Automatic annotation (TrEMBL):
Gene behind this protein: trpF
Similarity remark: Belongs to the TrpF family.
Pathway assignment: Amino-acid biosynthesis; L-tryptophan biosynthesis; L-tryptophan from chorismate: step 3/5
PANTHER family: N-(5'-PHOSPHORIBOSYL)ANTHRANILATE ISOMERASE (PTHR42894)
EC number: 5.3.1.24
GO MF annotations in UniProt: phosphoribosylanthranilate isomerase activity
Domain spans labelled N-(5'phosphoribosyl) anthranilate isomerase (PRAI): 46-226
UniProt organism field: Desulfobaculum xiamenense
Protein's recorded name: N-(5'-phosphoribosyl)anthranilate isomerase
GO biological process, any: L-tryptophan biosynthetic process
Gene3D superfamilies per UniProt: Aldolase class I
Keyword Isomerase in annotation: yes
């Protein structure tokens, strides 16, 4: 069953795509609750090596969560990756059956699991039955859902910088018995509106707080945090 101690699995603000220790330290200083490390990806190249990610994760203070974001589908390989990196939090981004998180839960009851729900490109304001079915199938085996956007030109289902209809996020929040984190093109200028529209448990950003060089920019992260906090205050 999903856990009821939601704070560790649902930080209010997660930033993904950590490049190095310097970037991680910056985000921690600015007040980010959770750092995401995309590895074993289907389209994008990893932002960091396994060894460097493990080093960064070992340096994080206890109140900052480290989440492995992966397209791996084999439970044993997922657990091995988490163990190698030194974290017990994983975001499953591949199109896996519910049996995968169920197996992870059986093998490692301490593992906190987030399952992505990718919004199809061109989806209108009606939530597809397929997503409702996935919510019902996965909810007993995971701790939270994360919504994201797809890029039909590249096939990417994350870190696309694309926004989807937040009414769909709201529908997912209302349909889900467990917390929902929203992502997909969030940036300092739209995160407050997204929170007000969807009423999620948390938000996640990647490319929306980066400069042209692909590194997180302190000014963008500061503004993102300020606007996100205001958004959560609006819906409190």
């Amino acid at each position: 069953m999903p856990r009821t101690d939601l704070a560790p699995i649902c930080p209010r603000i997660q930033i993904a795509g950590i490049i190095d220790r310097e970037e991680a330290d910056l985000l921690v200083r600015l007040g980010v609750d959770s750092l995401g490390f995309p590895l074993r990806l289907a389209v994008h190249a990893p932002d960091i090596s396994d060894a460097d990610a493990a080093h960064v994760i070992a340096s994080l203070p206890p109140h900052v969560a480290a989440v492995v974001i992966t397209y791996l589908t084999n439970p044993d390989e997922i657990i091995a990756l988490c163990d190698a990196l030194g974290t017990a939090r994983v975001q499953l981004h591949a199109d896996v059956p519910p049996a995968v998180p169920a197996a992870l839960r059986a093998l490692r009851p301490d593992l906190r699991i987030i399952k992505s729900l990718v919004i199809p490109h061109g989806c209108d304001d009606a939530l597809p039955n397929s997503i409702v079915e996935r919510i019902n199938a996965f909810a007993p085996h995971v701790d939270a859902f994360l919504t994201d956007s797809t890029d039909p030109t590249t096939g990417a289902t994350g870190a696309t910088g694309r926004i989807h209809d937040w009414r769909l996020d709201r529908a997912i929040v209302e349909a889900s018995p467990i917390p929902v984190i929203i992502a997909g093109g969030l940036n300092p200028t739209n995160v407050r509106a997204a929170i007000r529209a969807a009423r999620p448990a948390a938000v996640d950003a990647h490319t929306g707080v980066e400069g042209p060089d692909g590194r997180k920019r302190a000014d963008l992260v500061k503004t993102f945090i300020r606007e996100a906090v205001s958004g959560f205050s609006d819906i409190a």
